[in-house]
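Customer escalation, tier 2.

The customer says the design service returned an amino acid string that "doesn't look like it belongs to this structure." They asked us to rerun it and document both sides in this ticket. The original structure tokens are below, unchanged.
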């Protein structure tokens, strides 16, 4: 509530400033609007563009990462390698099938035992630490990473610049069998960034954890431009490369003028996404807007402010709901659950009234989901969530724990919590929720654990989880309590 109050006051203050400046003097309006536009670009527009581009990057590069990981954990690859790599054609066909299915530029496997570089066209070479084209392999192994993205020229295709997604292949004991992966043409990523720059009129590029540019619409800057050496940008490079959990907004002075910048860490790629805009472009837009504002007059200005306030309020409300609510079921998410858990601990410290957790998992859900499809599965999750809400009190918190698991934080001791859990179990059983043909009705297994003073969230949920899986082991569709 305090945040909403502050936001309301801020919007009112901004409205008064803009209207007052317009009425008093046009030049004051220009100065105020310029600063307001700069702040809007830095804190709203640029981050929004960054998130849009981030989504596009995910859609183009995350799939190759997942495919590379799937290959590394493929039982065929492990078995074929451990069996002595006897039939080369089998691996060639496997790699060719992957390439044909996903249309990747390159698909490969390097054997740690024989040093053979298998390609979808056959055995390409025997790698060696003395070959400059093979440095990537030994560098990757020394970093002890599960997977890594590497921008390099593809020797097989004649030196075309490629983003390789390299993934370790290990046997079931963790011993290295080799490295597999796929390659995506750098031209594809560069073209995507170029289109993003044209669409949003911002500079967009990706740098690795050392600050070296790995993807840019200007291919000549790839692995040549280092943000730690760029004038102005070098002053904030250490702050950019220190970002992890939260994105950051910055400003710096370049040779061409002041630059507004937003940056976020992309954990799936271990790279940083940077979006920039020259402040002069912002001021140029503001000057044009000043002329239009003078021509439109007071009524147009007031209308723009009203629409802006409504838009900000609308999207702010949606964002606030999204941060604490599961989109599918409408239940709270883990973040909201953790917040309420801390509050519950505080209440125990003040009043001594205990609370309990009810962790539940849908029995037979996977079979129904596989049989009827994800849409039917989503419908079932929503129906179960609604049934749970009907059985708990308004003061209890229902959260989606993940997948087909739900958790309830109830301000009750163990005995009362068991009553609530049994009520939920019986309601779901009686509802006979199933797929279209009426078979495979869903039931729930529940584990209940009462809070012990000072007990951390992960400890209490772990005890509830143990009780839940004991209930499943004993035949499902039952309630069990956890030991303290």
């Amino acid at each position: 509530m305090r945040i909403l109050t502050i936001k309301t006051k801020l919007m009112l203050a901004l409205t008064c400033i803009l209207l007052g400046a317009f009425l008093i003097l046009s030049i004051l309006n220009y100065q105020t609007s310029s600063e307001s536009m700069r702040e809007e670009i830095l804190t709203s527009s640029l981050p929004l563009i960054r998130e849009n581009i981030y989504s596009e990057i995910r859609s183009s590069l995350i799939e190759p990462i997942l495919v590379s990981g799937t290959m590394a954990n493929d039982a065929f690859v492990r078995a074929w390698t451990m069996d002595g790599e006897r039939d080369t054609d089998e691996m060639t066909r496997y790699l060719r099938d992957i390439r044909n299915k996903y249309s990747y530029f390159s698909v490969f496997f390097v054997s740690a035992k024989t040093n053979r570089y298998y390609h979808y066209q056959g055995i390409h070479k025997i790698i060696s630490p003395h070959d400059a084209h093979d440095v990537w392999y030994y560098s990757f192994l020394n970093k002890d990473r599960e997977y890594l993205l590497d921008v390099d020229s593809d020797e097989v295709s004649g030196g075309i610049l490629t983003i390789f997604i390299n993934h370790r292949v290990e046997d079931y004991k963790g011993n290295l069998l080799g490295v597999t992966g796929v390659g995506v043409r750098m031209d594809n990523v560069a073209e995507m960034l170029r289109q993003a720059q044209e669409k949003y009129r911002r500079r967009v590029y990706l740098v690795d954890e050392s600050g070296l540019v790995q993807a840019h619409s200007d291919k000549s800057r790839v692995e040549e431009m280092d943000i730690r050496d760029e004038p102005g940008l070098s002053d904030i490079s250490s702050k950019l490369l220190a970002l992890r959990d939260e994105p950051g907004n910055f400003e710096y002075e370049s040779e061409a003028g002041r630059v507004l910048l937003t940056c976020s860490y992309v954990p799936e790629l271990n790279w940083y996404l940077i979006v920039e805009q020259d402040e002069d472009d912002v001021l140029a837009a503001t000057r044009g807007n000043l002329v239009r504002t003078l021509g439109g007059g007071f009524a147009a200005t007031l209308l723009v402010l009203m629409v802006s306030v409504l838009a900000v309020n609308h999207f702010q409300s949606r964002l606030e709901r999204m941060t604490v609510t599961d989109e599918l079921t409408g239940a709270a998410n883990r973040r909201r659950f953790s917040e309420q858990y801390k509050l519950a601990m505080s209440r125990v410290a003040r009043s001594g009234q205990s609370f309990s957790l009810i962790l539940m998992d849908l029995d037979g859900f996977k079979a129904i989901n596989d049989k009827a499809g994800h849409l039917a599965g989503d419908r079932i999750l929503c129906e179960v969530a609604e049934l749970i809400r009907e059985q708990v009190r308004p003061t209890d918190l229902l959260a989606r724990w993940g997948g087909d698991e739900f958790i309830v934080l109830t301000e009750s001791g163990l005995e009362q919590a068991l009553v609530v859990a049994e009520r939920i179990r019986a309601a779901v059983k009686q509802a006979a929720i199933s797929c279209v043909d009426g078979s495979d009705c869903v039931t729930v297994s529940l584990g209940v654990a009462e809070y012990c003073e000072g007990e951390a969230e992960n400890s209490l949920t772990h005890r509830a989880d143990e009780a839940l899986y004991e209930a499943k082991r004993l035949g499902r569709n039952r309630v069990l309590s956890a030991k303290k």
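Tier 2 assessment: The sequence is consistent with the input. Residues 205 and 216 are 5 Å apart (CA to CA). The longest strand covers residues 160-170. Sent an explanation to the customer and offered a walkthrough call.
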